[in-house]
Design goal:
Layout lengths: L7 H11 L1 H24 L2 E9 L11 H9 L3 H10 L12 E4 L7 E7 L2 H19 L3 H4 L2 E5 L13 H27 L5 H8 L3 E9 L7 H9 L5 E5 L5 H17 L14 E4 L3 H5 L5 E8 L4 H11 L5 E10 H10 L2 H4 L4
Parallel strand pairs: 5-9, 6-7, 6-8, 8-9
Antiparallel strand pairs: 1-3, 1-4, 2-3
Helix pairs in contact: 1-7, 2-7, 4-5, 8-12
């Protein structure tokens, strides 16, 4: 394991592998679900257009003010009341711009009234009702502006309005999902500060690393375990306390079980006749056991690869005895994941650990 706690790129790379589901989830939400909802909500909307323009010469001195004057008249409430009656809407429902809206371009004497509806007929009815009332309201100002009329009534649209294009929205959503997902993982790495190397584990706990162990799911092979047993046998410890932060419970139990198997299978005596005595293993010792431990006790702190730095530091504060404590860095892998990584060429970067 070559990534260190100070290597931001290595930490981010580990985080993206560990939390790839976060990136996939944001891509699915922003790139699939959101575009689908928007597309479905807009697929049933119809738009119909009516045009209102002057039928006499305008008397308004400045045509630049015409669009602003038209928007003011359109929003005076009369158009909303007319459309609400036409479509039989409740008084609490918003009319502009949900059902009708006005397009008043600069340097153009013609106003376009657009009606929206869930059906083609509703859209046309909304546009025509709004255009008729808008014309009546404009003609209230005949002297300063001129006379207006509906120049073209809204026809019933043939097909729904293509307000949302699905494919560009999906592509944009997928890109946004990648950015958001990577951002979430980056923030998570900054907060957790995962322990990703023996050096980082040693600094966090304040004690040396005894060994690095790989626990393979569904496999009896435990690389690094022989090194742990060899060093424990040379510690002259009669009792070994195996502990670790809460996140290491599964790794701790598996490591204890493997240690039991190896120690129970050791011969009684070496070929030279020297007796073999293996230490007693205590899994997750209690506070009284830790408080009364003797000089012949040794403590192993199990730290899973990727454990939060703060959790390791807090746990070590209550369990470290200088000279009688060490860390075992544990990485869990599945046979399927390892095979896939090796087949994809990533295994050389991910599975090659100290």
């Amino acid at each position: 394991m070559h990534a260190s706690e100070g290597d931001a790129f290595s930490a981010l790379g580990w985080g993206l592998r560990r939390y790839a589901w976060i990136v996939l989830a944001t891509m699915v939400v922003l790139g699939v679900l959101v575009p689908e909802v928007l597309h479905r909500s807009s697929a049933d909307r119809y738009d119909a257009q009516a045009q209102v323009g002057p039928v006499t010469a305008l008397t308004i001195p400045n045509l630049d003010a015409l669009p602003r004057s038209g928007e003011t008249v359109f929003a005076n409430g009369a158009v909303e009341d007319a459309v609400r009656r036409e479509l039989r809407l409740e008084s609490t429902q918003r009319v502009v711009p949900d059902h009708v809206e006005l397009v008043a371009p600069q340097d153009n004497l013609v106003f376009t009234v657009i009606g929206h509806g869930k059906t083609a007929q509703a859209a046309a009815n909304a546009a025509n009702a709004a255009a008729g009332t808008f014309t009546e309201e404009l003609n209230r100002y005949e002297d300063p502006m001129g006379t207006f009329a509906v120049q073209r009534s809204a026809a019933v649209p043939v097909r729904p309005a293509a307000t949302v294009r699905w494919l560009p929205l999906v592509l944009a959503g997928l890109a946004a999902g990648v950015v958001v997902g990577v951002g979430i993982v980056t923030l998570l790495m900054a907060v957790r500060r995962p322990v990703l190397s023996p050096t980082a584990a040693s600094r966090a706990a304040g004690v040396p690393v005894l060994a690095s162990v790989e626990l393979k799911k569904g496999s009896r092979e435990v690389p690094g375990l022989a090194q742990v047993c060899h060093r424990l046998l040379h510690q002259d410890a009669r009792v070994v306390f195996v502990t670790g932060p809460d996140s290491a419970a599964a790794e701790r139990r598996r490591l204890v079980a493997e240690l039991f198997k190896i120690f129970q299978s050791l011969p009684v005596r070496l070929p030279n006749g020297e007796p073999v005595t293996h230490p007693r293993i205590v899994d997750d010792p209690t506070t009284p056991e830790l408080a009364t431990r003797g000089e012949d006790a040794f403590t192993l702190i199990v730290v899973p690869l990727g454990a939060a730095l703060g959790a390791v530091v807090r746990h070590a504060e209550h369990h470290v005895i200088p000279g009688a404590t060490a860390v075992v860095l544990v990485r869990r892998t599945s046979g399927l994941r390892t095979s896939l990584l090796r087949l994809s060429g990533v295994g050389a970067l991910v599975t090659r650990r100290a």
